[in-house]
Amino acid sequence: MASTGVAAPLTDAYLRDTTGVAAALDVDARVGLTSAEAAGRLARFGPNEVTPEPPPTLWAVSRGQLANPMNIMLLIVAVASFAIGQFATGIVVGLLVVFNVVMGTKQEMKAQASVDALAQLQVPVARVRRDGQVAEVPAAELVPGDIVLVEAGDLVPADGRLLNSATLEVQEAALTGESAPVPKDSAPIAGTEVALGDRTNMAFQNTQVTRGSAQFVVTATGAGTQMGRIADMVTATKRSKSPLQRELDGMTKVFGFLAWGAVAIIGIIGLLRGQNGATLALLCISTAIASIPTGLPTFVQTMLSSGA
């Protein structure tokens, strides 16, 4: 068989009958692909893997923590302390900033590791029919046209059109949000545009078979699967702050306004009264430190990472 006529992904497979899908994918469902044909399609379509988003570097995370408005205010206080010769105060405030950055970075990296661990949840091997025999192959080597066999307890390794099934039910909550397992069968679906949750003759990657068994022909792999499309959308989405982070940024501005406002008032009154400059500067710095909740950045980051 030649693979030149195979198109992937086959987006309208749910509208075709099983014979039409097998013909479009140039495969005999009773025999499956040959090893040579599978190798050729793998070279053409690539592995059945979703390319992960590059994780942030430790330096990038640390830089983001340092740019926290609360830490910036503390840095200003530390610099002012050194400028007037209050080295002990400057060192203490500097250590607070370092503590906030280190703890915040550690918590964010832990949260990222948890997300990465979830991303690694994939089917290691799949049972396929190749060269007329059922064999186990790495799921990453599945290609459009492969005949895959699944049964209760299996995770679906790629998107595919059901060829036959026996009391098949699939849990698709991760994809569609439907909490109850969905009954599946191989009957064609009438219509032109059918919602994802209503494509009952399709099996989707990373959904779980809860009952029965089935055979399906792979119609899409890797980034062409529904899960792959979701991953692409997530990768392409510009990261933004959560509502809680935006609220905290607003609260930080309020703290800053009050703190520096109090410092300005104390400084002006002190100058009018002719107080010693060094003593007045130390009083202003003490007021600023007392007005800023120094542990807030670390507390917030810990809370967010625990939620993640």
Question: Can you tell me about this structure?
Answer:
By secondary structure, this protein is α+β, with helices and mostly antiparallel strands. It has 2 domains: 13-49 and 122-233, Calcium-transporting ATPase, cytoplasmic transduction domain A, CATH 2.70.150.10; 58-117 and 240-307. The chain is built from 10 helices and 7 strands. Strand 1 (125-130) and strand 2 form a beta hairpin. It starts with 17 loop residues before the first helix and ends with a helix.
Number of helices: 10
| CATH architectural designation of the largest domain | Distorted Sandwich
- CATH fold topology of the largest domain: Calcium-transporting ATPase, cytoplasmic transduction domain A
Number of strands: 7
Estimated helix fraction: 40-55%
Name of the CATH homologous superfamily of the largest domain: Calcium-transporting ATPase, cytoplasmic transduction domain A
Using the coordinates above, name the CATH class of the largest domain: Mainly Beta
The rounded distance between the terminal residues' Cα atoms is: 48 Å
Counting copies of identical and different chains, the oligomeric state is single chain
Query: What count of structural domains?
Result: 2
Q: Which structural class fits the helix and strand makeup?
A: alpha+beta
Sketch the major β-sheet.
Answer: 7 strands, antiparallel
